[in-house]
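Lecture 7 notes: from sequence to structure.
We start with the chain below.
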Amino acid sequence: MRWNLTYVDDIMGNYEYVSFVRSRYEHAKFDISGRALTYDDLKEFKIPYLYDRSQLRLPEISLLPKVKALYKFQPLAVVIGKDPYEAEDLVEDIEVSYTPVSGPLYEEIPDNIIYKEGVKGEVDSKNVITLTLNFDRNSQYPLESRIVAVRFTGDDVVLHISTQIPTVVKLLVAEMLEIPQHNIIVDTPRVGGGFGAKQDLILEELSVIALAYKLRKNLKWIEKRAESVMTSQARGQKHEVKVGFNDNGKVEAVYDKITYDVGAYLLPWTGISPLFVTLATIRAVYEYQFYYEATALLSNRPPQGAYRGFGRPEAVFVTERIMDEVARYLKKDPLDIREVNLKEPSGDVGDIKTVFGKLRQKYVELKEKYKKGVGVSFYIQYAAPNSEIMIKHEKSLVPGYECVRAILDTDGWIEIEITATDQGQMMDKAIRNLVIRELGYDKVRVRLAVTNLKGSGVWASRTMLTMGNAALLAIRKLKDIAKAIDPELNWEKLGLKMRSQPWLVKDISSVACYEPSEFVGTVSGQISVVTVDDFSRIKPLYHYIIADVGEVGDANNVIGQLIGGALQGISGSLYENIQDEYSYLIAKANESPIFEVDLLHAPSRTPSGVRGVGENGPTGAYAAVTNAINDLGIKCNKIPINLEGE
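Predicted structure tokens for the same chain:
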């Protein structure tokens, strides 16, 4: 067979490479000289959004800025080279003149406030303390940076893209290009890490796609590490807290002035949803009157995106610092204070009594052993928000359900199709295990990143709760269909029958959709032990995690997820400083503590009994580490750590 070389070039890529001219200033008017593509080349493309913007004061923004840079490293223009090296050289040839400016980012928003809400009230208890808690930004720092390659096959736009959300990418790109979704093919089975950074499409990715479509060129962009660190960021909240409590340690009221650092603009999907998650989480475990004023504020920083935990670590940082400071004020045991303040949680969260009891026992052991430098956090990690929560409370236009297709192939294999990509969680293995247990039959494979199903990919610890449960429901439907054809239900024999007698059996497949009817949570606790080394640096020694994870698809994967997530929280607390753009440090193996993980298995009230754990580790780790530092007698209310007084 002789290949058509044009066709070979098309399927193999034959890409030209994109590089961005980026701002050297955080707020400046600019003028570009040289052969680069700028605002005028992409101004006809409108940025798509997946949330209700009616309650937000938002300016109109473009893929590339017209005259003013709003943050350092913002992309100002695009160059195209035959390879990545030529593209980098072409960037160096572009001249940019800057005129630094001050004042608001947008003239139409002079106070930089895009959203504000609150509940008024007074804190007038017998005992009152105040805390200023700063949770500065971290970078998600996935092993694989962003990659997008765009090519064309007939009328179809083919996207090879490192993303957690292939179905959502398809939706957003179709809206931006104003073409039908069926003309977009997204190819992303596995991803080299995401941690929430790839839950959204950033404007660089949209710019590459729009430019490729306009020029009808095969284009590829590979994000450099410095670009990733400086433009993919999350967290960024400040809490000025006033706490009132009685002599027994019962917190009666909390007033929290919250400032949410939006960055220069909002991303197409994330929006300010992490703020809503923080507000929903801040009273998940403890009972008290909660008054607050929350302000979402524009800043000369990159847009804030998603990061593992998505607003939960910030909330737990606040509540757990409060509990420790109340205990310190009253000279009481921190676990006693937490127990006094426990509430009856909403939803399906697991065995609170056992988790808390084991956490207390371990805390006592560690205090006896180490004396100081021991910090605790206790929390409920809610996962898989359903459609009501997503649409009513988080203002999203994306529902919470997920659909799964189960297919019997003619070779006797059962294929499970899901919208999720894999970032190393191995959820395909876990779902496969659930299906095998259900069927007692092991010729099962899971196909990732299917985009002709209703669903929205990987985010919010939801894969097992939505897709895992939907897979079980789809398999049960498939079993009913198969039994009607073959009462003895021999899967391999039935597959052979499909192959040899297609006029009798045309298709054996089923689709099921699922979302939890109530919030499903994982009641959890963490204890961190830290010390000060010979160089006056905080060093983590030991870290304990306990979580009621319900039924599991793969226990080793769950343990790995908990340890990896907790290490991200430890790293984000001790090492990561977003101001160090070229020397951003993350914890390596030699900076890691000894980990111990304790799992409980009270089944959730879902078909599979699973609970979500993907975001659990970082949710409690930041608070445990900072409480441990304070237990050393070092005042620390800032993440990454700021040892006050030094």
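Points to note: Residues 463-485 form the longest helix (23 residues). The mean pLDDT is 95.
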